[in-house]
Known about the structure:
Blueprint: E1 6-15, E2 23-27, H1 29-38, E3 43-48, E4 52-57, E5 59-60, E6 66-70, H2 72-78, E7 85-92, H3 103-111, H4 113-121, H5 124-135, H6 140-156, H7 163-177
Helix pairs in contact: 3-4, 3-6, 4-6, 5-6, 6-7
Amino acid sequence: MAKTNCFRFEGTISRFNNNLYDLYIQVPEEISDYFIKQRNTRRIICNFNNKVTKHCALQPDGNGCYCIFLNKDDQKQLKLTFGDTIRTEIKEDTSKYGYPIAPEMEELLQQDSLGSEFFHALTMGKQRSLLHVVGKPKRSETRLNKAFVVLEYLKENQGQLDFKELNQAFKDANNKFY
């Protein structure tokens, strides 16, 4: 496996003036340029204050620079808010999906060739969204049930994905499983 460059910097947590996103960290231009211009990727793995590690993307801030969003879970785990200083370490995400895959989903993708075919025909962003949904629960059984529902849903709909319909499929499956 090729060695990837790792960058460290300190930044101040800032706030967007919009309703879409709340807090973010500005990435120094020389670091974002390395990933975007030299490596041709925005997918990164971040570690904040040596406590929270997550797969994410460098996001444009609307002013020609790039930033990393902090969601509510990140803020809660780090006990940080607007104006606080945060130590950040980032490196290129070289994983297959740009997001961690739950072992249950990985196993089902290996076992279900048609489900795998439909899953891999989706855009990378949709694949990551589904991996997030499957990987979020703590219990292995719940992750397995979600992975099963995702692949069955994709097969029933010939690979077409509608997140509202998928959410209904999860609800229907919960009624069946429990």
